[in-house]
Amino acid sequence: MKLISEEYRQLNAELHQRSDVGYGGKGYRHASDVRKFADRLSARTVLDYGCGKATLSEHLAMKVINYDPAIEEFASPPDQQDIVVCTDVLEHIEPDLLQNVLRHIDGLAISGIFAVIATRPDGSKLLADGSNPHKIIKPARWWGETLASVWGRLSLIERKGEVQVTVDKVLG
């Protein structure tokens, strides 16, 4: 199942390597919410899907597996984990590959999924080809319908400029 084109993987890898933009370095911001979600599901393991600089793992006192196809050290295909965390990632997915990525995430999550998705363009950086790294700019309602079509029943909280989604696979 194709998750990212080679050209787009390279563009993201280049942006991750630039020290002046902080690309992929803010996963830690969600550590408290992820911890609460993990505790609610009695999760012991986390897959940080699209981990960027892997800052979430530095702020969680539990086993975290980092996965990011644009970063060589984290590019190995991951195994299933109790929960999959995907923060500030889905808006970066190539639109024609979104369904593949959603199915991939669903198949990797044993107990639940925690996602945060930006609903606005990235105003601070561009990819080397001059394009905005946020490839899918859609409102919360669109994200809710799109995710539910693959992940099933979910909880959605809309915040300024983003949406937080949780899926409890145990309770359905």
Could you characterize what this model shows?
With 172 residues, the protein is of the alpha/beta class. It has helices at 6-17, 31-40, 98-108, 140-151; strands at residues 45-49, 63-67, 81-87, 109-118, 155-159, 162-168. A 6-stranded mixed beta sheet has the order 2-1-3-4-6-5, with helices on both faces. The longest helix is centred in the first third of the chain and has 12 residues, at 6-17.
Task: Give the topology.
Blueprint: H1 6-17, H2 31-40, E1 45-49, E2 63-67, E3 81-87, H3 98-108, E4 109-118, H4 140-151, E5 155-159, E6 162-168
Parallel strand pairs: 1-2, 1-3, 3-4
Antiparallel strand pairs: 4-6, 5-6
Keywords:
172 residues, alpha/beta, six-stranded mixed sheet, 4 helices, globular
Task: Write a short abstract of this structure.
The protein is 26% helix and 23% strand. It is an alpha/beta fold and 172 residues long.
